[in-house]
Here is the input.
Amino acid sequence: MRFSAAAPLSLIAALALAACGGSDPAPTAPSAATAPAAPAAPAVPAAAPGEPSPEFASLPAPYNTANYSVGARTWKLCQSCHLTAEGAGNLVGPNLHGIFGRQAATVEGFAYSPALLAEDFIWTPEQLDHWLENPRTFVPGNRMSFSGVRREADRLGVIAYLMVETGYEADAAPAEEAPAE
Ligand code: HEC
Here is the structure.
């Protein structure tokens, strides 16, 4: 019987609360609780497929018309064999950092095929386009066992993506010969 004295007190308290409750403001409007949740907005407003992406806006034509998600998706075909970060090393294929404007087959420590070593050209976006269109016929005998990227839009995208990812500088790529003074 320890709590016998408490019972009347709590009853009084309950009555007092009930009395006060009568003057409480109206309960929360039901519409707030039942309103449908707003759909989650996409994190980054992506350009529609086929539309130029802002990531590529500063690249020279026609690469400024490429679509970023097409490029990133196509790059997935390459990433098992190539890294793009400076100093990240080689995989099955050589590191592609700074590829544009560089002599073919010159990444230190990578064992190129004799066929690619024998080549004497500088990688430009256009050369890469030929290479990716058909790696076998561009440099016969090379060791890049990759069937190529058939669709032109996919090549445009992946080249633009590589330009951004590998530190492309417009000045580094050979431009049209300026007429000698
Ligand atoms: C299965 C592995 C593999 C895949 C996939 C692959 N490559 Fe390669 N890549 C290589 C190898 C190996 C070489 C070196 C070829 C040689 O020495 O003949 C190479 C060479 C290259 C070179 C020349 C590099 C230099 O230093 O001259 C470029 C550029 C290149 N790849 C780009 C790409 C791109 C872009 C893709 C995707 C669209 C791709 N590769 C997919 C293995 C791969």
